[in-house]
Structures are given as C-alpha cells and as structure tokens.
C-alpha cells in the first residue's frame, strides 16, 4: 500500500460534513443577508396573469395563488428562519449552560432540584409543551422564543452538568483550588472553557431542530404571522392548493430540509473538528 | 542552642470517607459504610528536608497529600505549619495558607489546564496572590521558566505542545510561582518515561538546594524515594508503620512490611528474584480492616499479640519509630 | 540451548493513518521466542513495544498498515485471513494486558469467561469445562477456586484480576504468551507475585513468553533474554546476564546509568537529556544520537544496522565496543 492509501484511511479534521454543512450555511446566510439583491422578483408582487403557474424559466419555483413568485418568497423567508435558528437557541443555551455549570460544580440541594426539574420537563414531548405555552401567551415568534427558553434550557443544562462533573475530577481543577483560587475563578476560568465544547456542537445541531420547530409552529399558525414570510407559513399557504400546485409546498419544504441538513452537517463536522464524542 | 521547630508537623490526622448508601441500606436504615483512609497519622518534617512517603494502593498516601493542601478536610487531628494549626482555616485564610504549601500532581497531562498558555497559567498564579507588582509579572515568568529549565518561548504555548517531562516542569513552575515553603509532590515521576524521570528528580534536588524547599515526596517506587529523601515514612492501610532516616531504613528495615516492600522492588541484578514471594496475600480492604496490626494476615512473623492489639508507632529499641510488636518495647 | 523459536517476528513495520498524517510506530523490529523462555521487550513511550505485540495478533485496527512477517508454526500470522487468525489467537498465541479491569468482560463471571474460551477452542462438555476452569484458577494461585468461579471481575482485587486474566489466556493452552505490561498497574508486592507466577508457568508449561515492560528491574529479575527498543527500532538484544554486565548500546547504557537503583542518596542522578523520540523522526540516522554521549558523525549520517555480536546478541550501535562500565 502506498503512502496515499495510508492517508486515505485516516479520519480528517476538516471532514466532508463540516465542509458541506458550512457551504450550505454560507449560502443561506447570503440569501438571508441580501434577499433584495438575489431574489429575481418582489415577493409581494401579485401577478394575476400567472396564478398558480408551474415552475418555468420565468418563475423557477412557480407562483402561488396570488401570482407571487415562490422562489423570491422562499429566498426572503430565509432571513426569518435563520433568525429563528439563532434566537430560539441562544437564550436556552446561555440559561441552560449557566444552570448546568453551577449545578454540576456546586452540587448539593441545588443540583438535586435542578436534576428533578430536568427530569420533569423531559417527560413531556417538547413540541407539545411549547405549543401549550404559545397557546397561552398568544401566537407569534417572540412568544415562541419565550416558550422555548422556558423549557429548552434543560437540554443544555443536562449536557453542561455532565461535562462539568467530568472536568471537576480533573487534576487541573484540583491544582487551581490548591493554588488558592476562589470558586468563581475556578468555575469560569478553568472549568467552563474546558466544558463548553459539547455545548457548542449541540447548539449548532439544535439550530436545525429549532428551524423545524419554528416551521411547524408557523404551519400551525402559532409562529410567524402573515405577512411575514417564513417557510412554515409558505407551506401552510400552499396546503390548500396541494393537488394543483405542489410547488407551493415543495420548495419551501425543501428549503427547510436544506437548512436542517446544513446545520446538522455543520454540527457533525464541528464535533470532528473539536474532537468531541457524539 | 534549641533545635529549630519542624516546618510541618502533623498530629493524629484521621480521615474517613463514607460510602454512599445504596437503596438497600436506605430501606433498612443502615449507615453508610465507613472507609478509614487515614488513621492517627503523625509525623514532622524539618525545614529544607525531604520526607519520602511510600506505600501501595489503599495506604492513604494520596489522601494524606490532599489533606495537607486542604483539598480534603481531615476529620480529626492537627496540621501545624510553622507552629500554627492550619487544619481549621476556611475561606480566605485557607487560600492565604495555600501560598505556603503547594502541590505537584502525578499526571502532567491532567494537571495543566489544556486551554491556557503557560504564560497565562503562571501569570494567573502571580496575579491572584500579588506575588510581584503587575509590571514585574513578565520578568518573573521568565525567571520561573528558567528555574525549571524551560525556554522563555514556552510561555506562549499550550500544554499539548510539550512532552510529559516538560509538562511536569511547567506544573512545578506553577507551584513555585506563589513562593511556597513546602511542596507536596504526589507521585511526580510515575507518569514519566524512565529516561525523563532522572531529569525531573534532579530538578527537585536542585530546587530544594537553591530555594531551601521542604519537600514531601509521595511515591510507590521505593528506589526513587530512597535516592531523593532524607527520611522515609512507610504507610499501610492508613497508618505509618515505620518512619526513619532513608539510608538506615533501607539498610536495616525493622517492620516486616518494609522488609517485604524492599524485597519486592525489582533491582538491576539479573535473576535476583528468590524462590519465595516477597509478600504473600493481598492488601486488605479498607472496608474490612484486620484486627490488631493490619499487616498480620500477610506477615511471616506474626504472633498472637499481632492479631489482638494494634502496635503503636513508637521509637522502639532506642531507634526510629516502628509500629511492630516484634521490634521491641 | 538452541531450540527453534516458536514465534519469529522479522522486519516488522507498522504505520498508522491518522487525521494528522501517517504516524510510524514500529520501524523494523525483529524478535525470537523459544519454548520455556521469557523474552523481555523493554522500551519507553514511542519505542513501539506494545504495538509490536499487538501487530502479531492483528489487534491494531483498520487504520494500521503492517508489513513484515510473524512466523508461528510455519504460518505467517500477518498474512493470514481473519478466520485463521482467530483460531491462532488463544490456542496458539495468548495475550494478557495491562489493565485487567478493561480487558475482562464486566458482565460475565470469571468462570464464565474461562469456559467461553474453552468452548471456543473445542471443549464441548460443560462438566469438563468446569473442571478445567477450576484447575486453571488453582494453577494461577487463586484460593478457593470452586467458590470463585461465579464471581465477577469487580469482586476481585487488582492482583486477583490479573491472575484471572492469565487463567483465561491459558485456557486454550497457547504455546506463546504475549504479556503487555501485565504488572505496570499493580502494587509492587503484587507485581512480585504475578511475575513469579508468569515465570513458574512459563517453565512448567513450556510456553514461550514475551514480556513487554518499561522497567529494567523487572527485566533483570524475570527474563532470560531481552530486546531493547527505541523509536520503533531494535537497539540491542542480548541474554539478560550479558546485557546487565556489559550493555552494547549507548541507549541501554544510558538507561542503566540513570536508574535510581543504588547510588548515594540525595546525589543527582545521571540523567539523559531530551525526551524519547518517536519512530520515523530520524530515518537516516541513529534515533538516539541527539541524546547520546558517545555519538559521532557516522551516527548521524546513516541508520546503524543491527549487527550480530555472538549467540543471541546483537546491537545497532556504532559505539558498541567503546562503552565504559555503567555501574558507579
């Protein structure tokens, strides 16, 4: 076997999932950043002459029941969905990490209580709780973010707590204590930087899940509200015309799949890069 | 002229760990089983000298090390540092005491924060304890690296870029940054390659001379301890069974366990191994210690008294302290 | 005593494919073991000693690229298919490891694991297996073997677990025993017991044993012959008496001089500068030259060849005749 053959057997740091995932996300980011430049048409422009027309050279993704260009609508919706990915994950990540950090390091009653709360939340299907909370608070993206923050933090807390429990046993933490460093310093300057890698990987993968969640709620009318363009809403718009105009639901759906795939692959690739066990 | 008091004196140190209660225990209302890791340990260390502490697993030497640097709280007994009892210090006073007594750990991979550069690591120690004014920190870092014979460029690198021996040097530099009077080294050479062990051993000798450092060297390797210590304490199941001058103890060990330990340490003499086991049997479980002298089930010289009564650690026969009924009154 | 070697490894090269490029672990190793003798394979990290052992049994995994030969009973273990290799493992070549807790299956009783090996190598009758299992436990010095058959690994102490692992390795009656640092994780008094056990079994059962260790003291007291490895290569091989009387490689010489055994207390040791090299770092020179007190220009120009010095003795060192006495 040649050296090349040996090299081919090796796992790589910049693995194919990472490259593919980052490429997809970069594409989506560009679409979200400058939709006006990229989209061929005004997403709000009605075109009564081309209602429900199938994909063509003029309208690559077809048009909807108001004659609006589906491609342009899909591109403009990218921004909202990427925002969902960011906002629906950031608050749970930070809140959950903090709680998990303290619970894992300090232990005691706080840890026991946190543990029971986590167990309790995990017994319910996540989607059902979120829908229930949004139903109480009223439909809308902001309320969805609140609902997700209220229950989504447990996943991060559980992960962080597990990592902290491992790092806490390490000699470098003992060394920091022997050096006379106070608990705050030990926690934030020593334990946290070594415990957050799995959180980071989970965060990226969670973005994929939250896009799905946001689209699901949008489809149900509980998430983004019209006239905002959001892929789930677009699918909902198209559901009544599914027989005649499959393209109204198909392309926004494909966009969701693509975005989910992009974040998932990026998460896997990040795990390889950071050498985190999955 | 009165003799100088020892820098460190440990009196009657005892430490228990309780095994977490299983569900069966909780249901039946049983107490958690108690593991005694240290039992009435007493010794003194003179300033500028090295005390080697040897023993096998379960003897309590690591627990002792951690109690001395206050990672564990002893259950009873006193730790006198420069005459003052530090075993009850809490919070900020305890952290102040940490400056005087530092620790070097066994595994150089695990004892350094993988995310911090060497420079950050050392400057943190210097800054938190205000060892030198802010503007002198960089200069002091260079001095510390020089002290452990590492190049100045090491400051910008992370632990994974160094070899095991170099990482151990970094750990020693970190311990020395706060200018301790006493350093507890818990198996500092065990995780290193044989050809590197000699380098670090020499470093300890050199630092002791230059800085008048008091050293507690904990190891399972008798051969190393003999070479580096002024005095040696031998531990078995949480107690010291013999403590005396290194060379004398090696030449004529008085406790049967010490004799067995020395006999079983492989030497560089081909085919030295004799026909019989150096020490028979297995170390006892700390959950179920034997009565009387803990070593009696394995001791070739045990008599009835050994099973009945715990021998006290006392200077017997006018020589160094030994905890064995057969060594004299 | 020149019986034919039971296991003969020749010119072994092992390279691993990793995310950071190919990493060489063994750079030309050769080894012979005869029945009834213990051959020590001694070296530090990067020496390739453990990898050598595992390569013989094909335990290295898909990312390893292995060349060379390992002749056992006329068959090259490195070239045969997986099925034959599985048959050779256990019944021909047995292996014991450093960490008994990870090498033993925690959910099977010790008796169960011994009987599993017996069954895998053809013993069909349950009663015969049980009888043999008890015999094996007694052979390795586990007291009250009938009672201990049903015990699980976590119920044994470290020394007992190691004995149990030896019993399992012996179950299929191997001709060769490969021992990868079997006592490194044990207390020194238990190490003493286990090494004696291995010595006794090698003699009684006529096995050919390879003992991998980093401790020269263990080699001196247990082995008949020894091969010293450095940076994936063989530095020196000799009968143990000859090696300790007069080492013929500068590395062995330096190791012996730097050992803390003997020597006056509180005096500095004779350290070796630098740290151990890994295989492949110096393809056209002696790997030890940067740390060597006896190195000359020739040592840095070409890789020294392993030259025979007599019966069972060879050295890959250009200074082999110039080395002074190592004992102080």
Q: What is the top-level CATH class of chain A?
A: Mainly Alpha
The CATH architecture designation of chain A is Orthogonal Bundle
CATH architecture verdict of the largest domain in chain B: 3-Layer(aba) Sandwich
Distance between termini of chain A? 31 Å
* Overall pLDDT confidence of chain B: 89
* Global structural class of chain A: mainly alpha
- Could you tell me the CATH topology label of chain A: MetI-like fold
CATH class of the largest domain in chain B: Alpha Beta
Explain what this protein looks like in three dimensions.
The complex is a heterotrimer of chains A (278), B (329) and C (328). In chain A, 73% of the residues lie in helices and 0% in strands. With 278 residues, chain A is mainly alpha-helical. In chain A, helix 4 (70-106) runs parallel beside helix 7 and helix 6 packs across helix 7 (141-168). The two termini of chain A are 31 Å apart. Chain A is built from twelve helices and no strands. The mean pLDDT of chain A is 87. With 329 residues, chain B is an alpha/beta fold. Chain B folds into two domains: 1-21 and 32-100 and 182-266, 3-Layer(aba) Sandwich (Rossmann fold); 108-179, no CATH class. Chain B has helices spanning 23-28, 61-68, 91-98, 118-128, 137-147, 164-177, 194-211, 222-228, 246-251, 256-264, 304-308; strands at 8-18, 34-45, 50-54, 76-81, 84-85, 101-104, 182-186, 214-219, 231-236, 239-245, 314-315, 321-322. Chain B is globular and about 70 Å long. Chain C is an alpha/beta fold. Chain C folds into two domains: 7-230, Rossmann fold (3-Layer(aba) Sandwich); 245-328, no CATH class. In chain C, 33% of the residues lie in helices and 23% in strands. Chain C has twelve helices and twelve strands. Chain C has helices spanning 49-56, 82-91, 100-103, 110-120, 126-139, 145-148, 158-170, 188-205, 216-222, 240-245, 250-258, 297-301; strands at residues 7-18, 21-33, 38-42, 64-72, 75-76, 93-96, 176-180, 208-213, 225-230, 233-239, 307-310, 313-315. An eight-stranded mixed beta sheet of chain C has the order 6-7-8-3-9-10-12-11, sandwiched between helices. The relative contact order of chain C is 0.14. The model of chain C has no long low-confidence stretch (mean pLDDT 89). Classes of the chains: A mainly alpha (278), B alpha/beta (329), C alpha/beta (328). The interface between B and C is large, with 49 and 48 residues.
């Amino acid at each position: 076997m040649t050296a090349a053959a040996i090299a081919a057997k090796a796992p790589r740091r910049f693995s194919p999932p990472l490259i593919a995932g980052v490429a997809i996300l970069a594409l989506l980011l560009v679409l979200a950043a400058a939709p006006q430049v990229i989209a061929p048409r005004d997403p709000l422009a009605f075109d009564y002459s081309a209602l429900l027309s199938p994909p063509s050279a003029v309208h690559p993704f077809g048009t909807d029941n108001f004659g609006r260009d589906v491609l342009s609508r899909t591109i403009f919706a990218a921004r909202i969905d990427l925002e969902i990915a960011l906002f629906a994950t950031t608050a749970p990540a930070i809140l959950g990490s903090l709680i998990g950090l303290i619970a894992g390091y300090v232990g005691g009653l706080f840890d026991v209580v946190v543990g029971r709360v986590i167990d309790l939340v995990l017994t319910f299907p996540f989607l059902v709780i979120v829908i229930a909370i949004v139903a109480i608070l009223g439909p809308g993206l902001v309320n969805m973010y609140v609902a997700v923050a209220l229950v989504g933090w447990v996943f991060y807390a559980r992960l962080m707590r597990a990592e902290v429990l491992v790092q806490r046993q390490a000699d470098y933490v003992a060394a920091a204590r022997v050096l006379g460093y106070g608990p705050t310093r030990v926690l934030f300057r020593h334990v946290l930087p070594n415990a957050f890698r799995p959180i980071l990987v989970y965060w990226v993968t969670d973005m994929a899940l939250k896009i799905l969640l946001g689209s699901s709620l949008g489809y149900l009318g509980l998430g983004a509200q019209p006239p905002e363009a959001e892929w789930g809403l677009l699918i909902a718009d198209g559901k009544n015309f599914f027989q005649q105009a499959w393209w109204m639901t198909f392309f926004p759906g494909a966009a969701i799949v693509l975005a989910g795939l992009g974040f998932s692959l990026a998460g896997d690739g990040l795990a390889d890069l950071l050498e985190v066990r999955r | 002229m009165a003799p100088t008091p020892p820098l460190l004196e440990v009196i009657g140190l005892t430490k228990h760990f309780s095994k977490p209660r299983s569900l069966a225990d909780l249901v039946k209302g049983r107490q958690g089983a108690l593991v005694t890791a240290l039992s009435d340990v007493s010794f003194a260390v003179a300033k500028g000298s090295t005390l080697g502490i040897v023993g096998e697993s379960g003897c309590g030497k690591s627990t002792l090390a951690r109690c001395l640097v206050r990672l564990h709280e002893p259950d009873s007994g006193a730790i006198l540092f420069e005459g003052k009892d530090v075993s009850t210090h809490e919070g900020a006073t305890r952290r102040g005491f940490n400056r005087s007594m530092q620790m070097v750990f066994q595994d150089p991979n695990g004892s350094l924060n993988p995310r911090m550069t060497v420079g950050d690591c050392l400057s943190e120690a210097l800054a938190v304890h205000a060892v030198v004014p802010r503007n002198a920190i960089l200069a002091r870092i260079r001095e510390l690296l020089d002290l452990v014979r590492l190049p100045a460029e090491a400051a910008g690198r992370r632990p994974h870029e160094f070899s095991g021996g170099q990482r151990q040097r970094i750990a020693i530099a970190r311990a020395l940054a706060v200018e301790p009077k006493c350093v507890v080294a818990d198996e500092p050479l065990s995780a290193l390659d044989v050809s590197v062990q000699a380098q670090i051993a020499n470093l300890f000798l050199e630092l002791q001379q230059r800085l008048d450092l008091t050293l507690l060297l904990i190891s399972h390797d008798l051969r190393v301890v003999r070479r580096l210590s002024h005095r040696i304490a031998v531990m078995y199941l949480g107690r010291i069974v013999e403590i005396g001058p290194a060379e004398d103890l090696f030449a004529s060990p008085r406790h049967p366990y010490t004799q067995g330990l020395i006999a079983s340490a492989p030497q560089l003499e081909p085919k030295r191994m004799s026909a019989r086991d150096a020490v028979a049997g297995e170390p006892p479980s700390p959950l179920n210690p034997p009565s009387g002298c803990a070593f009696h089930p394995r001791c070739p010289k045990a008599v009835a008294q050994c099973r009945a009564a715990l021998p006290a650690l006392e200077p017997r026969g006018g020589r160094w302290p030994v905890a064995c009924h057969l060594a004299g009154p | 005593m020149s019986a034919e070697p039971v296991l003969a490894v020749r010119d072994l090269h092992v390279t691993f494919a990793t995310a950071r490029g190919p990493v060489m672990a063994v750079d030309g190793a050769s080894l012979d073991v005869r029945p009834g003798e213990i051959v020590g394979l001694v070296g530090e990290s990067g020496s390739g000693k453990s990898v050598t052992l595992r390569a013989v049994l094909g335990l290295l995994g898909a990312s390893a690229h292995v060349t060379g030969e390992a002749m056992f009973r006329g068959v090259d273990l490195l070239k045969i298919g997986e099925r034959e290799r599985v048959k050779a493992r256990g019944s021909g070549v047995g292996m014991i490891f450093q960490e008994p807790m990870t090498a033993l299956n925690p959910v099977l009783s010790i008796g169960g694991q011994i009987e599993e090996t017996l069954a895998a190598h053809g013993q069909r009758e349950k009663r015969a297996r049980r009888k043999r299992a008890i015999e094996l436990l007694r052979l390795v010095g586990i007291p009250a073997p009938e009672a201990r058959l049903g015990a699980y690994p976590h119920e044994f102490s470290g020394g007992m677990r190691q004995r149990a692992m030896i019993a399992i390795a012996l179950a299929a009656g191997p001709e060769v025993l490969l021992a990868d640092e079997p006592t490194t994780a044990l207390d020194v008094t238990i190490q003493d017991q286990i090494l004696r056990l291995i010595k006794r079994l090698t003699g009684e059962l006529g096995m050919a044993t390879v003992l991998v260790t980093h401790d020269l003291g263990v080699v001196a007291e247990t082995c008949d012959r020894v091969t010293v490895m450095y940076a994936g290569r063989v530095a020196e091989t000799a009968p143990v008496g000859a090696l300790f009387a007069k080492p013929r490689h500068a590395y062995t010489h330096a190791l012996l001089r730097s050992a803390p055994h003997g020597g006056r207390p509180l005096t500095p040791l004779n350290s070796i500068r630098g740290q151990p090299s890994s295989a492949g770092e110096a393809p056209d020179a002696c790997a030890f030259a940067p740390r060597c007190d006896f190195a000359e220009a020739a040592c840095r120009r070409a890789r020294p060849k392993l030259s025979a010095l007599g019966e069972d003795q060879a050295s890959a060192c250009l200074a082999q005749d110039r080395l002074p006495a190592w004992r102080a």
